[in-house]
């Protein structure tokens, strides 16, 4: 059976807003305890005193690093956007890995036509220009992709290598799009870059969101 402290912690960690407010010491503990009391009682299956919930919240707040923002401040170096992309997904098989080698040696494919190739445990995903698709499919022969998504674009943000040890960098960037219901089709990351693959129709909206939310002089390309 859950303890009051465990039920309260679970409840708080389910809400990013509450967690951030508690960490910054701005949460009205008594008011919040009153609002969740019924849910806590339901979780532990017995009546709970309001003071017990307040105490659990206070102790939890003490365990959180004060105001160490769950969403960190990020200074972006620049943003790059691109349109006219397509995604092809194949099963990861020996034959398809060999086909992928053909892709890399196909002289008809320019370097800038392949945006990314990702090897998962069971899939191979290729993000490329729509113009390159015919060459890619030729390399895979009769193998049909398990998914083909056209009408895509990319939004790439670049930042300092100093962020490599900063928690929640990717979360912060994803969050800015997610809370505005901007669908992310794929995410590609490197040492100092994060690329979102999005539907072309939302590229401009995504660019406006990222540019407005994060601090620093931005250059778009």
What do you see in this structure?
The structure is a single chain. The chain is α+β, with helices and mostly antiparallel strands and 221 residues long. The chain has two domains: 60 residues, no CATH class; 138 residues, VC0802-like, CATH 3.30.2130. Helices cover 40% and strands 24% of the residues. It contains eight helices and six strands, in the order ααααβαββαβαββα. The chain has a six-stranded antiparallel sheet, with helices on one face. Strand 5 and strand 6 form a beta hairpin. Helix 1 packs across helix 3 and helix 3 packs across helix 4. The radius of gyration is 23 Å and the shape is elongated. The N and C termini lie far apart (56 Å).
